Amino acid sequence: MYSMTGYGKGEYREGGIELSVEVKSVNNRFLDFALKAPRSLLSEEDAIRRAVQASISRGHVDVFVTLADKREKEISVSVDLPLARVYAEAARKLKEEFPDLAEDVGISFLLRQPEVLRQDEVALGDEEIKLALKAALETALTAHRAMRQAEGERLKRDLLSRMETISALRGRIAARAPFVAEEYRKKLTDRIREYLDGKVDETRILTEAAVFADKCNIDEELTRLSSHIEEFYKIANTEIVGRKLDFLVQEFNRECNTICSKSNDGEVTAAALEMKNEIEKVREQIQNLE
What confidence tens digit (pLDDT) does each residue in 191-247 have? Predict the structure, then answer.
């Protein structure tokens, strides 16, 4: 069982490459991926996305990548000859226009002009950067997964504890349910005796009690609750549980609401309302699960 909320960081510092990857995630219904990285690494977005998808099934995931490339790079010098000719031609025209000015156009003059002389770093192969990114990302995702698992286990303990409470409440309702119809029959008999001076139509009472018992019968709801509780425990022992448990909790709510609507007994209603409160707390916790 994993929480959707987590954080992990991975670093690579070798051979002049300093690369850091941070992975942060929060709750989201589906997997939502966002990347912030240097422009030189944006070409690796698909590879990063695939790695994230392999580790995380849902949640909003932010991946932050920083890179400092301190490797020594070979520098080459190039001359923009067409631009130098433009400067030389401009100097010649100025000389023709102002013949009295001293002639100082030479090689050093041309080299001082903007963009005539350019220094270019010889591009290094980016394979080393890719390997550094892969290593740092794997470390970050491993740490992120470990944190989500630890939080998931804490949530699991809380959910199982609440499920024990729900199971106990279901037991209370089941134990009380058989007596509801019988008590109704006794109360009905007493009221009729009171109004009719002790004369009682047993057939009518039995009929009324039978109708009442049928209307307030919750055997099916209690059976389904038992099945849901058993299924909850099974799902809780798997890894990806969020959507399954979310659906199951809706079924818990449906049965509990039906019990409340059918109940004509204070004890049953009180236990059902307490169960609804626990189910809502379970539902809130499930929203944090992957």
Answer: 655 555 555 556 665 666 555 555 667 888 899 999 999 999 999 888 778 889 999
Pick from 172, 177, 254, 179: nearest CA to 219: 177
Task: Find the angle CA(156)-CA(158)-CA(163) to the nearest 5 degrees.
Answer: 90
Distance CA 50, CA 30 (A): 15
DSSP reduced 3-state for 108: helix
Residue 29 and residue 52 share a domain: yes
Q: Are residues 200 and 99 in the same domain?
A: no
Q: How far is CA 203 from CA 195, 200, 208, in A?
A: 17, 9, 9
Q: Which residue has the higher pLDDT, 70 or 77?
A: 70
Task: For 2-54, write each residue's pLDDT tens digit.
Answer: 999 999 999 999 888 899 999 999 999 889 999 999 988 888 999 999 999 99
What does the pLDDT look like over 142-175, one tens digit per residue?
A: 999 999 999 999 999 999 999 999 999 999 999 9
Q: In the β-sheet with 6-14, what is the strand arrangement from edge to edge?
A: 6-14, 17-26, 59-69, 31-36
Determine how many CB atoms are found less than 10 A away from the CB of residue 177.
21
Q: Are strands 17-26 and 59-69 parallel, antiparallel or unpaired?
A: antiparallel
- Its domain, for residue 51, covers 6-71+125-148
In angstroms, the CA 103 to CA 92 distance is 9
Longest dimension (CA), the chain: 142
Residue written as tokens 């109360």? 187
Asked if 21 contacts 65 with a C-beta cutoff of 8 angstroms, the reply is yes
Q: Is residue 1 part of a domain?
A: no
Residues 156 and 279 placed together within one structural domain of the fold: yes
**Count of the separate structural domains present in the chain:** 3
Residue with tokens 């007493």: 190
DSSP-based three-state secondary structure for 257: helix
